[in-house]
Amino acid sequence: MKFKLLMLRTFGLVTTGFLGAIGLAGADPRVDFQREIQPILQKNCFACHSVQKHQSGLVLETLTSILDGGGLDGPAVIPGHSDKSPLLLRIRGVKHPRMPLNGKPLPENEIALIARWVDELEPSTPSQAKAQGDSRTLVWPWTPLKEPVIPEVERKEWVKNPIDAFVLAKLEARKFQPAPRASRHALLRRLYFGLIGLPPTPEAMERFLKDDSPEAYAQEMEKLLADSRHGEHWGRHWLDLARYSDTRGGALDYPRPYMWRYRDYVIRAFNEDRPFDRFIREQLAGDAFPAFGDEGKLGLGFLGQWVAIEEGAEEARRTYLSDVVGTTGSVFLGFTLGCAGCHNHKYDPIPTKDYFQMEAFFAPTTVDVQEVPFSQYEKPRLEPERWSQASKEWELLLSERKKAGEEFLEKLKARVLFWVYGELRRRKDAPGAAHGPLEPHHPQPAGAGCRDAAGGCGRQPGDRARPRAHRAPRAGRRHGRPAAAGHRRRCRRGEDRAAGRDRRAAKYRQALLIATQDKLPNRPGRSFERETYARRPKSTQF
């Protein structure tokens, strides 16, 4: 989720940066070999100078082979010198025979484009081409991921995050200026179209324009990410890759009445931000992971999206395996595997052996009907009328339980207050009451000992009957012990009782505070409302 948040926050800035680069383009970009030159050579030269033919030892399919040249003229091009390059001399007719040998001469605009490409080549191009390898090979799937170095830029105040630094570095390299920042109106529209595919409502736009807080944009983003339409908008891209269809295809095009369950499964996965590794496992082998439950089995609909062709059993089996292997390679690996089913891949390092090893993984797969119970997310679609009635019953029951809970809360509060005030009335004459009904009892100073001049252990006039510990000791000895020692023990017990009264008074004070604030104490991890309302009645469960 953090990654999506970062990318979406920079979407407006990145877009305006590239638009500024396009709008202020003041110089023609360099000629791209694969996009502009290679199609010309493929159309006019590959008939004789391809990897299969390579007449005169010359191959014109890659930059490396062009720089290596052939056995007749050596290197086909000389970087930076189109007037000396054998390739240009041949196609212009300066050197005979003119090329293409058995075709029409190239148009002047194509010759000029090739000449411009040769002139733009750096002298170090041959060594760089050999270091990079064959340009026909798709490099990025085999390149290990590494942390890029954030480029240094001149306008540091324009950079809000590392992505901006990469964009601005490209703009500054070509002497371009970034486009102005998008307005808040345009920014919210981009956010809505990007996340849910719909424009914002007038109320949402008005609310966003009035909110000047720095977190307004992030709050709108979080709201849209939590919207169910987010999964519907982005899930359709995955469904296109998985070749989803509600019908089987072919001549008869039979309907598949329960395939909508796979569609809704994909939408839920996007809305729940399900981990991608689990998303892959569920769609390739969901029944092999019991921890995923029935929800994981719905992902196996990915393997059932092939077009059933009316043919024999063996041919249908081969068609199914070829479709699953090809789709798995393009969707999960990022490149095609179908070519390697007949021969080693021409551009990617995928031999036929690897193709059939991949196919062997899916060979034991059987396509049949499997009973998967409907989940709580799917039942409203299965019986909409019944679920509508159950929803009304549940809302009615919930309101009744809330009302009962409020009544119980009022009764409980009254009971707590009755108990607290009753305890206060019972203890209003307790020692320490002069300091307030719930204040702790303060012991007497050390100077007012048990045997002061008045003989009352430091007690104040008007106190209640003295406890046993504070009564004057009888003269003489009792059971061989001095009378003063027994008096000291009784006095300590009286002090312990006073300390206990202090603790209880603190509890009473806390209870009174809770009761007057209309709150109830809960044990950690438990809630009165959760225990009262969270249990759904069995009568409404399907």
Describe this structure in words.
With 542 residues, this protein is mostly helical. 50% of the residues lie in helices and 1% in strands. The protein has 21 helices and two strands. Strand 1 (477-478) and strand 2 (481-482) form a beta hairpin. Helix 3 packs across helix 6 and helix 16 (313-333) crosses helix 17. The chain is elongated and about 125 Å long.
Short synopsis of the structure:
With 542 residues, this protein is mainly α.
Layout of strands and helices, then pairs:
Blueprint: H1 2-9, H2 11-23, H3 33-44, H4 63-68, H5 86-92, H6 108-120, H7 125-132, H8 162-173, H9 184-195, H10 202-210, H11 216-225, H12 228-241, H13 260-271, H14 276-285, H15 293-298, H16 313-333, H17 352-362, H18 379-382, H19 384-426, E1 477-478, E2 481-482, H20 483-516, H21 528-533
Antiparallel strand pairs: 1-2
Helix pairs in contact: 2-8, 3-6, 9-11, 12-13, 16-17, 19-20
Shape: elongated
Helix percent reads 40-55%
Query: From N to C, what is the helix and strand string?
Result: HHHHHHHHHHHHHHHHHHHEEHH
Cross-sheet strand order for the largest sheet: 1-2
- Tell me, rounded to a whole number, the average pLDDT: 74
Distance between the termini: 33 Å
Give me the number of helical elements: 21
Name the structural class: mainly alpha
Assembly annotation: single chain
Low-confidence stretches: 1-27, 131-137, 431-473, 475-480, 518-542
Number of E strands: 2
The biggest beta sheet is recorded as: 2 strands, antiparallel
Strand content: under 5%
- Gyration radius (Cα, Å) is 42 Å
